[in-house]
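Why predict the complex rather than its parts? Because the way molecules touch one another can change local conformation, and only a joint prediction can capture that. The input here totals 1016 residues.
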Amino acid sequence: MTDAVKPNVETTLVNLTIDNVPVSVPKGTLVVDAAKRIGIDIPVFCYHPKLEPVGMCRMCLVDIGLPAVNRETGKVETDKQGRPVINFGRALQTGCTVEVAEGMVVVGYTEKVQKARQDVLEFLLTSHPLDCPICDKGGECPLQNLTMAHGRSDSRFIFDEKIKLAKHVPLGEMIFLDRERCIQCARCTRFQDEIADDPVIGFEARGRSLQIVTYSEPGFDSIWSGNTTDICPVGALTTTDFRFGARPWELQASASLCTHCPVGCNTTLNTRREAKAGGEMVVKRVMPRQNEEVNEIWLCDKGRFAHHYAAKDDGRLTGPLVRRDGKLVAATWEKALALVAEKFEGAGKGLVTLAGGKLTNEDLYNLAGLAKARGGKALLDSRMAGGDLTAQVGLSTGSNLADLGKGDAALVVACDLEEEAPLWWLRVKQAAERGATVIVANPRRTKLERHAAFTLRYEYGHEAALVTALVGSFSPKRADLPAAVQALIRDKDVKDAGQAIAGAKDLIVFYGSEGTGLAESAALARACANLLIGTGHIGRPNNGLVAVWDKANAQGGWDMGLRPSADLAADLGAAKAAYIVAADPAGDSPALAEAVKAAGFVVVQDIRLSATAELADVVLPAAAFTERDGTFTSGERRVQRLHPAVPAYAGLRGDFAVTAQIAARLGVAQEKRLATGVFNQIAASVPAYAGLTSAALSEVREQWPVIGRGDVYYGGTTYDNKQGLGVQLPVSGDSPALTFEQPAEPAKFKGLKAVPVTRLYDRGTTVTPSAVLHPRLPGAFIALSVEDADKMKIEPGQKVQATLNGVTVEVEAHIDNSLAQGVVLAPRSFGLAIEGPCEITVKK
Amino acid sequence: MANVIGSIAALMNGMWTVLKQGLEGPVTVQYPEVKRPVHRRFKGRHFLRRYENGLERCIGCSLCAAACPADAIFVEASENTDDKRYSPGERYASTYEINMLRCIFCGYCEDACPTQAIVLGDNYEMSFTDRSQAIYTREMLLDPAAPDARPTPQKVAPGSFDRSIPDMKDPD
Ligand code: SF4
Ligand code: SF4
Ligand code: SF4
Ligand code: SF4
Ligand code: FES
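Output of the joint prediction:
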């Protein structure tokens, strides 16, 4: 992206004429972009509005003229009619590399230009295969479209001289390369270098032998790989997930959201009725849907490929199950619901509802409503705190990470941003590239550090202390702060970073869950809020606190009144009746499995039979997110809507409807038909959501760059957003008082200390059903410091026995040389019994 | 008088026509025992053709379905492997159905097909007692493999059929 089109750069306008149409665009705009802004198509292949121009393919050749300037007077010369004299160059120029200039005249319709386009296409097609009929890109292929629009009907090249190349090259397990189709535009390699910062693919050799190769092991080792298939202007790159799945014109498109992380990427689900699926409508591929304030035109590979958990396969629950003689057997809805209602009635205030963070706001609202009406507990299945603080000092309406630039700062603390919320990593990285000061505070190395102005290390457990030290670095000395904080304040980097934060125009603080349990997370969130309040970075757009939630809709959960439990095992164990929806505590941790077993009467509502469901007394099925209407609230507190893409499997209904049916039997009236009905209730009763309407969520604005179906040659196959950009909630405005809570000393353990970390590709229930990702899912592992590994003589990759909270699992040992001695990383959702920092023993 | 002669002539003419017709053979045939040959460009029920080696010509590209004005064709593709090869190249039609009740026998599918896989033949004998019988599946449409060719799927030497569409020649 050139500076000129960045939203927050003050710009001067330049006037020029393109194909006789006068246009004013910001200085620095490229000719192709200027044309696009007024709806004139200058064909491009290698240029992409999100990438730096390279001028490699010559497709964008146009005739460019500049006003003749008299050397003596310095004035523009005019002809007899008083019109400026325009000097055209002898050669055509590439519109993708030339910036606009005052008085410039661009011509694209002359025979000279048309001829050049024909020639470039003829050349590109010298060895192009006759693949359109079987090519996944066929139908949405820039080369196909531009050839139809600008190409010749014949070729002067000899068919016998066509070179034949490999057509089935796995670049990695997820992306296939067809070497014959590649037109060597380098969009894919430049995307990986410039945007993803994973330079794992590149060009090898020269001339006609030039080809794309992967340098990484495993091949194309990047969580961004799917995006290259969107922007590749031909069908050279295809995904394993979709290969030959359908022709693009046969697909239907529905607006949806990614449910894997708190970013809330906008997606389009492409669906088709399939014989292989027994005539069901199925999701064939997940495509990004443009939202320049959220995911731009990108998606991470988890969002793109891990959608199969919602597929209509044998693993899905289709009807209620009730435990009879120790076995779960099928039952009618009537019977199952009556039984559930009877037991909930009997449980009275002993009802505990536990809701997963991938539920919609509507589900969470009804669940919380039921729990409250019965005097029970409404718990959120999350190990992070601070949702109340984000509602007070979170991002305000009108925030956009793309607005962060020079003079602004972003602090990312206790978070491996690329693993926890990939798109935010990308956006924060871009902020750094625009000149924002990015401060990364994490006990070990993370990828974002490459773009950080300050990298702060602290000891696991000292996250809140570190943030408090940042506050301390610019505020009066306080002797009562703990020694750890005092020591951190004296650190030069902390001091400098603190100054940068205090002086920043806009400041956004991201806190994650690296190494934290609920207690640590609460302290950290509080400290981050203090920092923002202390520096006055609240209540304005592009300022505030962002929780990098462990669940996609955790913010919605907090807003609907659910809270994480301080001691989930105790709460579940003591429940007279437990209503567990879209959560799998037993699968997450063996300790919680015991608690579920101890609970009085357990109802599990989910789309698949989870480990928790296996222990349940009643299992109720629900519709998957692909089959549902509803809203999510992202970590940036943007409320967005998802629409049903396929009919509900076996006539199943959304979670809110199932809950409402139970509630009705207990005399609690809840909306059970339409998700929008519940949404209206939310808008009427949850203060932050006051006045929200479905119509407001569906509003769209003009977005740049222009992306859409007719423009595939320009921006790629990302869908344009016709279904809504969402609404960012206002912050409550009542800023909590600045209270310096003493950060607690981290728990000390005799032996090694295990800390939980989040990996994008984990082995959770929403990931493992997607076979396409399996080659990339690591097995259970732990990461040791170099010193500890040496001491125990453990080699990288070696199998070891790790015991956490009394549960032993065999894991692979990794070694992380940025890790401090005595600390072991234990990833979440890999079957390790870890919720917060705890002791671990590692045996060979 | 002339009137009478004229009338008789007309009568004789009519009798002659009747007599001539009576002496000509019948125009009807004893269908179904006897079948009338159809026109060279007659468009009847479709066939999916094979190459001489037995591989299916259809590559599952769905262009016939896209061309069909009656939306009568449904194609679903899958990927070939050298161990289980149905057609040359990477893609084949794992599902191919034509709804003969919708088909208007226009032949556009035939025109659209890049491999000349789908052709309309001379068979017009299609009658159904049930709507579902009108769905002609891939198995019903496929020509049987020639006696000296192998049926599909075939196990072939790796890399021997990597192109979906026969190579073009230089135009003269
Ligand atoms: S890349 Fe485009 S032009 Fe080339 S075979 Fe595929 S659809 Fe046809
Ligand atoms: S694979 Fe696609 S994006 Fe990459 S260089 Fe080739 S044509 Fe361009
Ligand atoms: S003959 Fe015409 S109507 Fe019948 S299947 Fe082919 S394209 Fe469709
Ligand atoms: S019959 Fe021809 S046009 Fe139809 S799917 Fe097969 S190859 Fe394509
Ligand atoms: S040279 Fe301008 S688009 Fe490739």
